[in-house]
Amino acid sequence: MPESPERPVATAARVYDYMLGGTHNSAVDREAAAHMVRSFPLAAVGARYNREFLGRVVRFLTGAGVRQFLDLGSGIPTVGNVHEIAQAEAPGARVVYVDYERDAVELGQRILSDNPDATALLADLREPDVVLGSPEVTGLLDFSRPVAVLMISVLHFVPDDAQALDLVRRYLSRLTSGSYFALSHLVRAEGRAGNLQRETRHVYNSTVAENLAIREPGQIAAFFAGLELVEPGLVAVPDWRPDDPDYVPDEEDVPRRVGLAGVGRVP
Ligand SMILES: C[S@@+](CC[C@H](N)C(=O)[O-])C[C@H]1O[C@@H](n2cnc3c(N)ncnc32)[C@H](O)[C@@H]1O
């Protein structure tokens, strides 16, 4: 768990909440975010792109008939949570949020106290047996039916490449045909975006409890091995099924170039 009671440190969950305009963060998180915004003024735009992708994915998945969601590294419940979107589209849709940041999970549990179809679990996603064997997961999710596993902007906090691949494989091995896996992940950028990205990662890794691993496109594609990639495939985060029918990708848009997103279906 990323907290140290003796000396407060910024955490990924609270820095991200601050970037999205949330209020569940402390001075140390705001300071880390301010450092980051100095090296990468568009960091908050990247966070917003990611959160919007999450919304589009959940609407796509409910449209595809999915009624169960396992949201790994779910973060601080902020506007546009998975259960809000899924249950608005499909009442009774079931959601288990998993995060290792205590504040995020406790807040989630309070918000969900009167929601029998959603819950929040305090656990480390690097322990799939603990997550999948927890009463929260076994009580709410039925793995003999399709489940969507979401790893949205979280796998880059697992720096070991082999461990990250193994984790995805272990979660996916539990899924039945018609299940889905959705991912967004920081990708190595080139040129000006690459320089900004390197500086930002340096600031992030020296101020936030978690370290960021930025991967190559091929490494990110490898997470989808054995799955059928949903159209349009693995693409820049805002390019994945944009809501705006007039959306045109902007090659100069730096935050657009630092993350990839995709959705795979279990055949
Ligand atoms: C950038 S936020 C993304 C939140 C949400 N998925 C979204 O995209 O809006 C990353 C979250 O992953 C969580 N996280 C990072 N490593 C984790 C781990 N090993 N186990 C559980 N949660 C983790 C952090 O606490 C944080 O809340």
From TrEMBL:
InterPro entries: SAM-dependent_MTases_sf, SAM_dep_MeTrfase_SAV2177_type. Pfam families: Methyltransf_19. Keywords: Methyltransferase, Transferase. Signal peptide: none annotated. GO terms for biological process: methylation. It comes from the Bacteria. GO terms for molecular function: methyltransferase activity. This is SAM-dependent methyltransferase. It comes from Amycolatopsis dongchuanensis.
